[in-house]
Recover the amino acids of this structure.
C-alpha cells in the first residue's frame, strides 16, 4: 500500500481505485504489487482551481508488506491567461517563446510556452511576481514581465484570470 501526499490538494481522485485525498492532500492507495513498479496517479480533472500538479503520476516499488510514500509536488496559486505585448510598438511576444516564473523556490518548474497572439497560460502563480520571457539568444529576444494579481479574483464560472502583460 502507498500513502499518497499532495499537499493542499484536497478532494483529488486517484486514477486507480476509489481513493480521494483528504483536506490535507493525503490518500491511501491499497493493493499494490510487491517488488515491481506500481504507477500511482492523480486525476487532474478533480484538482481544485488553485492547485497545479507538475506531474500527475509517480512510480513506487514496495517490498512485501511495506507501506511506501508517493509524493506529488503541488503548486498552489492562480491560473492566468496572459497576453504578452512587447513595449515600444513591437507587437506581441512571438509564438514558441518560453515563459518562466522568476524566484520560484517553492514552485517547481513554473514554465510555459507562448501560443498564438502572444498568449501564455500559467498555473500556480503567486499574487505578485516577475516572468522571464525568452525566444532567442540575443538581448533583443528576451524581456521581463512584472505582474500583480491583487484585486483580480477568480470565480467558479471563470477560474482563469485573464490579463495583459507588458514585456520590457
Amino acid at each position: 500500500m502507498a500513502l499518497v501526499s499532495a499537499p493542499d490538494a484536497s478532494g483529488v481522485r486517484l486514477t486507480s481505485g476509489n481513493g480521494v485525498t483528504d483536506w490535507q492532500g493525503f490518500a491511501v492507495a491499497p493493493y499494490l504489487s510487491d517488488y515491481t513498479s506500481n504507477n500511482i496517479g492523480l486525476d487532474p480533472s478533480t484538482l481544485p482551481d488553485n492547485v497545479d500538479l507538475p506531474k500527475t503520476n509517480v512510480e513506487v516499488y514496495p517490498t512485501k508488506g511495506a507501506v511506501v510514500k508517493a509524493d506529488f509536488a503541488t503548486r498552489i496559486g492562480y491560473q492566468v491567461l496572459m497576453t504578452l505585448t512587447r513595449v515600444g510598438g513591437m507587437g506581441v511576444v512571438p509564438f514558441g517563446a518560453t515563459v518562466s516564473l522568476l524566484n520560484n523556490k517553492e514552485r517547481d518548474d513554473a514554465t510555459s510556452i507562448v501560443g498564438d497572439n502572444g498568449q501564455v497560460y500559467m498555473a500556480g502563480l503567486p499574487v505578485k511576481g516577475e516572468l522571464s520571457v525568452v525566444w532567442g539568444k540575443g538581448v533583443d529576444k528576451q524581456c521581463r514581465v512584472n505582474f500583480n494579481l491583487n484585486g483580480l479574483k477568480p470565480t467558479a464560472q471563470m477560474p482563469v484570470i485573464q490579463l495583459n502583460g507588458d514585456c520590457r
Q: What stands out?
A: Residues 2-75 form a domain with the Immunoglobulin-like fold (CATH 2.60.40.2610).
